[in-house]
Amino acid sequence: MYKIGILGYPIKHSLSPKIHNYWLKEMNINGKYDAIKTPLKKLEKTIKNLSKKGYKGLNLTIPLKEEALKYINKKNKTVNIIGAANVLIFSKKGQIEGKNTDVYGFKKAILDLVKNKKRQMATVIGSGGAARAIVYVLIQMNYKRIIIFNRTKKNAEIIKEDFLKKFSNNLKIKISCENLKKIKNNIKQTNLLINTTPMGMKNFPNLNIDIKNLRTDAAVFDLIYNPLETKLIKESKKRGIKSINGLDMLIYQAQKSFYYWLNKTPKITDKLKKILEKEIK
Ligand code: NAP
What string of DSSP letters covers 204-269? Predict the structure, then answer.
């Protein structure tokens, strides 16, 4: 039986077991995907234990994606640049490979949202692990300018410096950083606004920003998927601004993770999306 799972803290509300166990069943694969509550200080021990127990690999979520790099033997360029892995792949010889499928998930999910839209300026809210993955994709998508707004401006500046260093100062893109409080008057020219903070998520306060100045031909991506409609998404819709929540990103990152463990690509269907949406509601 294939054993896979997700580590995180908290982990109870993760949708990943629903997604992966659905695919295992649909594809007649004898396997099980577990959610395993893992605080930061137990990460190393848990990874080693599960690897010894014959797990194919793991997903990682908050707050483990950055810390996990310490226990990885093999990582690709993406993981190196972002500094976070959300997938571990265990080899039979005990090697641990780290991958980042949040990047893939975001890239796939955003395609339709920004189709035929200008790529002059992108605005990113937040400076955590998710923001790093998003900034990386925006660079690849050739946005000319990226502004990172964060509660703690210094954390945004750390991302900027890190990216400049990793791209050996060869970035054609201009990245700037601002305090989140200044966002209202700085989003007039943005073509894409992305929330990468947990604000707006169930049990968190709303992201309290004024999007009155956002152009109606801009696009909004909220990484939150629970609730399906955050205040940010609701307000965007009210203004006729095209928007998307984080559910597609989550499913695409899961699809790629599944492929890395089992070498098979599961199907993303309306049935699966409906099951997840029902679970959230
Ligand atoms: P993280 O590393 O903990 O980063 C959190 C960021 O949010 C930081 O920049 C932090 O600002 C900011 N923040 C936290 N509380 C805030 C507040 N009260 N007011 C303003 N800003 C606040 O988390 P992460 O791993 O980047 O994940 C962030 C969110 O993205 C989570 O909700 C996660 O579920 C979601 N996510 C979704 C997907 C998907 O597939 N849809 C994938 C990955 C992540 P400071 O720097 O000031 O602390």
Answer: S-------TTS-TT-EEEE---SSSS-HHHHHHHHTT-EEE-SHHHHHHHHHHHHHHHHS------
> 70 an active-site residue?
no
DSSP H or E stretch at residue 166: helix 153-166
Amino acid at the residue 30: N
β-pairing verdict for 57-60 and 2-8 = parallel
Residues 161-193: tens digit of each pLDDT: 999 999 887 888 999 999 999 999 999 999 999
Kindly report the length of the chain: 281
Distance, CA of 167 to CA of 172 (rounded, Å): 10
Tell how far the Cα of 28 is from the centroid of ligand 1, in angstroms. 36
* Ligand 1 contact via 197 beta carbon (within 6 Å): yes
How far apart CA 240 and CA 252 sit, in angstroms, is 26
The crossing angle, in degrees rounded to 10, of helices 129-140 and 153-166 is 50
With a CB cutoff of 8 Å and minimum separation 6, the contacts of 64 are 7, 8, 9, 38, 40, 43
**Positive or negative CA dihedral for 75, 78, 83, 85?**
negative
pLDDT in tens, 103-158: 999 999 999 999 999 999 999 999 999 999 999 999 999 999 999 999 999 999 99
pTM: 0.97
Spatial contact of 121 and 145, defined as CB atoms under 8 Å apart: yes
Query: Which ligand 1 atom sits closest to the C-alpha of 197?
Result: 7
- Ligand 1, from 12, 100, 196: best to mutate by most atoms within 8 Å of Cβ? 196
DSSP-derived letter for residue 120 is: S
